């Protein structure tokens, strides 16, 4: 799994701390914690707010990250069907 941390960002009418995680199937999932409202759609935080932030301000973004190809794990030998040999009793 891959994690993309956008940090504090603005999207739509909210100021949020945003992360994206890509699951084993390659699907990107967004996770965010809203920190407050902004009066103008996708307005960037002002310089004073950015200076107070410990992390560098991330550009406003509302789009998922670019998908990455993740290889599927190979089937383990214990999970393959058995041929011949003893059969279960029940």
What is the strand tally? 3
Helical fraction: under 10%
Number of helices: 1
Given as residue ranges, the uncertain stretches (5+ residues, pLDDT < 50) are: none
Task: State the separation between the terminal residues, measured CA to CA.
Answer: 40 Å
- The residue-averaged pLDDT reads 70
Proportion of residues in β-strands: 25-35%
Q: What's the number of domains? A: 1
The H-and-E topology, N to C, reads as EEEH
Structural class: mainly beta
The order of strands across the largest sheet is 1-2-3
Rg is: 22 Å
Provide the descriptors you would attach to this structure in a database record.
single chain; 90 residues; mainly beta; 3-stranded antiparallel β-sheet; 1 helix; Glyas_Bleomycin-R_OHBP_Dase
Explain what the structure shows:
Helix content is 7%, strand content 32%. It is mainly β and 90 residues long. It has one domain. The chain has a 3-stranded antiparallel β-sheet with strand order 1-2-3, with no helix packed on it. A hairpin with a 2-residue loop joins strand 1 (2-11) and strand 2 (14-22). The longest helix is centred in the middle third of the chain and has 6 residues, at 47-52. It is elongated, with a radius of gyration of 22 Å. The two termini are 40 Å apart. 8% of the residues are buried.
